[in-house]
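PT: before anyone asks, these are the final sequences, not the draft ones from last week. 722 residues across everything. Please model them as a single complex and drop the result in this thread when it's through.
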Amino acid sequence: MRLFLASIVSILLFIGIVPILAMLIKAFMPDDTIPSLFGSMQTWMLMRHSVILASLVTVSTFLLGIPLGIFLGKTDLPFRRFFIFLFLIPLLVPPYIIAVAWSDLFQMSGLPLHWLSGLPGSLFILVSVYLPLPMLLTMIFLHTVHPHLEEAGRLVATWPLTLWRVTLPLIRPALLLAALLVFLLALGEFSVPMYLRYNVYAVESFTQFSAFYNFEAATAAAIPLVLFAALLTVAENRYLRNRIAIPRHFAQKNEFLRITLGRNRWSVLTGMACLAAIFVAMPIGSLLLQAGGIDSYLRALHVAGDALLRSFFYAFVGASVLTFFGFFTGYLFLKKPFYAARTIDPLLLFLFTLPGTVIGIALITFWNTPSTNIVYATTLIVLFGYLAKYTALTARISLATLAMVPPSMEEAAQMTGAGWFQRMIHIVIPLTRHGILGAWVVASLFILRDISITILLYPPGHDTLPVRIFTLMANGSPQLIASLCIVMIAAVVVPAAVAWGWFHYWGTKR
Amino acid sequence: MKIVRFEQVTCRYDEQTILDTFSLDVEQGERLVILGPSGSGKTTLLRLLAGFVAPHRGTIYIEENAVSRDGRILVPPEQRQIGMVFQDLALWPHMNVEENIGFGLKIKGVGTTERNRRVDTILKLVGLPDFRKKRPSELSGGEQQRVALARALILEPKILLMDEPLSSLDESLSRHLAHEIVHLQEKFGFTLLYVTHRSEEARIVGTRQLEI
Ligand SMILES: Nc1ncnc2c1ncn2[C@@H]1O[C@H](COP(=O)(O)OP(=O)(O)O)[C@@H](O)[C@H]1O
Ligand SMILES: [Mg+2]
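LR: through. Structure below.
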């Protein structure tokens, strides 16, 4: 068992961390790149832009996301589930699609396009993309607050005051973690600021690589992003880790306090509908308008049908591998059979928050040698990229479900003579199968929407739909691009809706 | 013969010392009741013997073989031939009664016919003949208790550990089941280590009591 788990970890470290270290070492070796990197005005401008954009995105998503999470997760607002799903859509699709949608809307309505470019546009688009994160995490962690604590508050205070003074402080560490995540994800996002011409580090790193094939410069521009991710991961590990409750058992329906909105429900509903219109309905609607009739979709499929199929294939294979690794890594976090197990969780979080482009550049630097062409020249390298970046997701989901299984379940099997593999197969995996499936679904959705890793790593002729659209965007007709975007949205949203429905069905059955 | 022997065992969690140079001998066929306030280390004692926790210092012997010593597990739980009824029973919710009870035999490669026969026998013994296909969640507390007991007994362990097995049941039912446990022990002849905090249960079950 130790051997098996240790090899899982070693493979992950080798795929994810070793290339990053190699890149760092390489970058700090020649002494001419680093001084030029930190010396130039350009660098500080990029740094300022990156930090301003990411901070504004974080603050805005939180001001909106926490109330949204409370209304959708803790009140009796009608159509809650529908709204939750709606708000999730911008997170589920490649982010630049929302930017394309808004520029279509501006164009069609005759608004000046430059209003959308630069900081304001990037901020608005990234807020609509990352809004679901604080919303979802608020909803999830609200369920971990024991009802008695809130009832005690309700005896002396109104609901808003109780939320402010009791509930939110209890989940504050979890919210801080969510803020950190949003900050780092926004910092690493390149496709939206690139499309809207707001020059940030992630864009610089990407263009140095893809437009100029300037490896040194691309690496140099990636280093501050690595340092940022490392710094914040360390901070998380040091200050937040032990203060966040793993949601060990979610409150059952009858022991979860729901707020009745009463007379206010209609005004809240109206507000919710307005937000949904702004963040979701309007952009998607304008894409639909721009795309036009069925002909454009047929043309879109003709142009990119192969990329669509490949997207599904990558998602299927990638999610399966990620689920496998994530499950055993989650098990490792929980049981910590050896000391090194403690370090793997922060390392995975670090990789997850690292911009996909940085991981891409690191993997290319590492594998682009004549003797390792078997990896570099095949889709294996794309799979490595996904593993490096997204194992944190499947591992965390696995951990959360594994933690809900009482240890005595496995111990009882041990007492009847079952070895470790037998316990896994007969007891632990069956008991966590819904969590495993959930991890698979989340992983496949993240791979479907991925652009930053795939665009750097795909072998020639093996691109995915998000990459195809992004490369066509420069000179494709707006109509074609819009219909491709709609195809992309459908490719993610339809499976997501099916999974959503299925999990709901399973949840109510239980 | 001393079937179980704790020799100068010290057990620690982080800073807190639970057992300090603790020694204990248990005779073959004994029914030892372990009493003590909550948090005194009763569960830890059973888990040490089962092999889920290693003692910091000292040695634990089963039938004169050292099974744990000085922070190391020498024989893993699945090889100790010990049965255990957990405090929360730990019945597997995704298996029915028959599958729960027959699991250990299946792992050992016992064929279906033989397995069914033995499951039948043990179900009769614990007084649950008609429950084979039910899920644990469809059973009452007392019935779940019997299934957990049957699952532990079907492998005919030399030692059976029970951790407050009846604490969730009402007094008259737990008195009744305590008598049944004594009955089964006399029939099978295993050595019993039984944790409880109820003195009446302790009187019924124990041939010897240990206060920790
Ligand atoms: N895995 C563990 N980690 C840290 N402390 C533990 C662990 N298990 C038990 N303890 C502590 O050891 C003490 C004894 O626990 P336990 O053996 O369960 O007592 P009892 O069963 O007599 O109530 C308790 O104070 C408990 O908090
Ligand atoms: Mg106990």
